[in-house]
TrEMBL record, chain A:
The keyword Metal-binding appears for this protein: no
Calcium recorded as keyword: no
Primary location: cytoplasm
Name of this protein: Translation initiation factor eIF2B subunit alpha
Assembly and binders: Component of the translation initiation factor 2B (eIF2B) complex which is a heterodecamer of two sets of five different subunits: alpha, beta, gamma, delta and epsilon. Subunits alpha, beta and delta comprise a regulatory subcomplex and subunits epsilon and gamma comprise a catalytic subcomplex. Within the complex, the hexameric regulatory complex resides at the center, with the two heterodimeric catalytic subcomplexes bound on opposite sides.
Molecular function, one GO term: guanyl-nucleotide exchange factor activity
From TrEMBL, chain B:
Protein name according to UniProt: Translation initiation factor eIF2B subunit delta
Bias (Low complexity) ranges: 319-333
Main location: cytoplasm
The species this protein was found in: Chrysochromulina tobinii
InterPro entries (alphabetical): IF-2B-related, IF_2B-like_C, NagB/RpiA_transferase-like
SUPFAM superfamilies: NagB/RpiA/CoA transferase-like
Amino acid composition bias (Gly residues), ranges on this chain: 343-357
UniProt-annotated location(s): Cytoplasm, Cytosol
Keywords: Cytoplasm, Initiation factor, Protein biosynthesis
Chain segments annotated as transmembrane: none
UniProtKB/TrEMBL annotation, chain C:
Protein name per UniProt: Translation initiation factor eIF2B subunit beta
Coiled coil (UniProt feature): none
Subunit structure: Component of the translation initiation factor 2B (eIF2B) complex which is a heterodecamer of two sets of five different subunits: alpha, beta, gamma, delta and epsilon. Subunits alpha, beta and delta comprise a regulatory subcomplex and subunits epsilon and gamma comprise a catalytic subcomplex. Within the complex, the hexameric regulatory complex resides at the center, with the two heterodimeric catalytic subcomplexes bound on opposite sides.
UniProt GO MF annotations: guanyl-nucleotide exchange factor activity; translation initiation factor activity
Protein source organism: Chrysochromulina tobinii
Amino acid sequence: MPAVSKAASKAAAAYTSFLAEDPVAGPSAAAIKALTESIKGSSATTIMGLSEVLREAGAALSSLRDAPMSIASLCELFVRFITRTALEARDFDDIRRLLIERGEMLARTTIEARSKIAKIGAPFVDAGGVVLTLGYSRCVVALLLAAAKTKHFSVIVAESHPQGDGHTTAQQLAQAGVPVTMVEDAAVAYVMTRCQMVLCGAEAVLESGGVINKTGTYQMAIVAHAFKKPFYIASESTKFARLFPLSQNDLPEHESAREHAAFVGRGPPPPPLIAEKPSRDYTPPNYVQLLFTDLGVLTPSAVSDELIKLFD
Amino acid sequence: MQHDDKKSVAKLQKQQVAKRTPTQKEVPLFAHLPQYEKDTGLSAAAVAKGSIHPAVLRLGLQMAEGIISGSNARVVGMLRAFQQVISDFEPPPAKVFSRELDACLKLQIQYLVDCRPQSMAMGNGIKWIKNKVTVAPPHLPDEKVKEMLVESIDQFIAEKIHIADEAIIANAMSRIAPGDVVLVYAASYVVERVLLHAYQSGVTFRILVADAGPKFEGRDLMARLLAAGLRCTYVNLHALSYTMPEVTKLLLGASSMLLNGTLVARAGTALVCMLAHSHGVPALVCCETYKFAERVLLDSICFNELGDPDELIPPPLRPATGVAGSAPATAPAPTAPPAAPAAGGGVTTASAGGGGTGSVADWRDIPRLKLLNLLYDATPMKYLTMVVTEVGVIPPTSVPAVIREASAREGV
Amino acid sequence: MRKQTISKKTSGVGCEYVGQSGTLGRLAHCTPIVATAMPAPSSNPLADLPPNVQQEISKLLAKLRRRQLLNSLDVARKTLEIMRLLVATSAAAQATDVNSLIKLIKRAGAVMVTAQPHELVIGNMVRRVLAIVRDETRDGGNKPFKAGDAAAASGGDAASGGEQTVHVAGPSLMSLLDAPEALDYSRQSLKALKGPIIEGIAEVMEELSTVSAHIAEQAIQHIHANEVVLTHGRDPTVEAFLKAAAKKRNFDVIVAETAPGGEGQQMAVALAEAGISTTLIADAAVFAVMARVNKVIVGAHGVMANGGLIAAAGSHLLALAAQHFSVPVVACAGLYKLTPLFPSGPDSFNMLLSPQPMLRYDEGLQGVHVPNPAFDYVPPELVALLITNSGPSHTSYIYRLLAEYYHPEDQDLSEVHG
């Protein structure tokens, strides 16, 4: 029905504008704000109606390119909250008001989540050690900057060609006085013996305890495992997603807008050559030692526990 | 080795020159291997028989006491003793020289084995000398044959051991880089010389000496290294996991290397290699090619040597000359091997502690307790990175190739 | 490399001790010679505590320093006694509300833990008591606190009502949208809660006394007939475990002598005298015999939050050898050894002891570094099963046990809110 889809598209538009407005806060915060907005703007009068609105907004956001994969669990969080507060026999307006209030609070705390993560993850960086990372993750940078306040250590960044997110990480760390070495993605195995630990961010943390992140993360995790170096993930809990892929082929479809690294400056691939450009890969939980989240330091099995509690 | 087969055991006992007492408490897991009490009077029976050469008598006792230990030392000792046996050998008239010499050597070898089971390298040496004796040209006069054999032994020792060692040292030294932290285990003659040469040539590196009981051979190695001016860290096996992160290379000696790339060396070597492997530390084995044996081992149980179980008892409590259970203040230096024990087999010590729970020193009195002193272990090939030999540096998978080459050349 | 000079009593002439090369930060976990980072640098950090509590703490720390008290169970018990005394006499320290009590407990705990960082049970017991305090406060002192209730209460509505509907130990995905923890401990009076708190502590002490028995009674499920079990050291829990199994089953035990302390030798004698067929081997022979071993059973000094073990030095070698031969490693440890802290390699919570057992000073060897760590770190992937007094569990389940017994705000004892 037209009214519903209008609301859904409004949600999508809200997300894009929130994201543009405050890129530092990140896509999760923008998504939360967008969901809250959709509640504010809805004309539902029942609990079921509210839940429907949320679900539709969530679906609309998920269909956006480059939307965070945790939209579904964020929606679920909101729906759960509605159900729980409804059990306390409050009236509808009360619930709605509370939901909006809490949604705005959550958007704020998501930003604080990063400093929490930095605080609990910083002690794991050894003084005099070398940290290896890939691309750019706000949580990772926050963690390393927090650790740099009290210890001397150095960082090796894998560039993540061709977008070169690694350069952003390198710049931010160098500004804070942390010695940074930039290496090509292919040199990860070569430098791994020097490293004391590997730290990456995540686009989504999954029910299995594994993570989905930019292509190259799985490779780095395998190399770290072969060299017996610990592989850590830093991520906010709002990125927990209820997915359980069995292999790389099980990941949700995602077409990335970036260039194909193998064809930079070479024009389009000539037939019969096929060019594959996976934007994300899945790292299974047995390669992840610990996850630093705002819920605390979690083992991969604890992550699935949290998700089970949420969805069951 | 079939010590669990009654017939074989009976046959062996008839052949034995020095009678050995089977141990009171046999460990069932190693029933197929000889398990003896520490016997005194090993030479008595041999002297009585009169057929053992004094040089061999002496060598046998030295090996039994542990005064001569280590593959190279034992092989060289054995061959030198055989040189004397050959020189002094007077065959009965009108008998074939080589056959008589062969029988004589067999007796000497039996005595040595009775004193202490032969190592695999010794086995190779024995095979070699026997072959030389058999192929000695029959038309030559006896004196000439003796001369030839003595010279062959000199050549073998020079070529296969001394010159080989020089080559190994040169090859291994080049692998030690400035700033390296080198870990060694127990004591190996070749490894010690590699370290000394590297130090003398001015390379700056650190040494960790890993060691374990009951023999604590690493202590002597370390004393010699310190005397030469090197700085060492002494790491007992329990502290190895703590110190392993700093190690960059592992340097090992060998008792033997086998057809399936397995390293046979002092017990504890497998643990050290395994830990090094888990930390990404390459393991270099320094081994002369004469030690390569044409056999395989999957584990350390099929073939091993069982030492004196009393060595597991801490020195202050050991049944040495009447100081059982005495206070540690008067304990003998831990490096000294137990001197001729007053108790031969089966004599228990008066437990100074007495009363309720016994102590390990009374293990013979405690019915369900057995002590097991293993001397060797077999390190699987996957934990070894490189074997340094006189023919060059080879991966452990190439060991059988070298063995086949060698036997093809020797025509053995 | 940084050198630690330990007092003349333990070091002696001619030997230096050097910690792990490089990383200064790691050394912070080794036994510090001077207690670091006290909250009140100029005065006695224990000054706020009742005097008899201060005395007991000093006595305990002195005993630990002199290594007169080595059994973790005894240390745990002593710590609980001190905590009980503190709660009972908290009025003497002007603590009338729960928040002040929490601060006092944390202060006492922080001092003890800083003085003996490797003695993990101290921190564990302090955190248990804090969890009891928090839970009794939340429950309004109505019903006696039982550890298992925390798990049962989560996921449902607790009696307290208001906007706090669900009680889980700490932040959880489900409670992200809930109002922040509204429980203000400084508003809660201590008077009515003292009794239940002390009762709760007594229950934990009761639990301590049954730890060995509860672990031992599980033995028969894990050891089958004619097995060959490998162990080392002399952990009383493991000894009781093996003896209990031996009453019903026939099996062989191989004990590694555990140099330099030789605890393995004592264990071998004890087991043999209990009628178990035992073989004593040197530590170096562990790999050699592992080919014929069915199970490795070890004790632990502490179980870390990631499921890794802090165990007797030599345990890591044992576990690696077991992994090579695909032999399962079973760790027996009471729940009181469970720690919410994470390790960072072999230096964590370790203690470097005197080199005396390995090289005597009169042997005349100069300039030799002789590390003698008391413990090894065994990573969780090498441990197949953890047997505690509440049953067996996989190392990946530790986080759940931690959430049941400890509160995340007590993770850092030196951090006090409000």
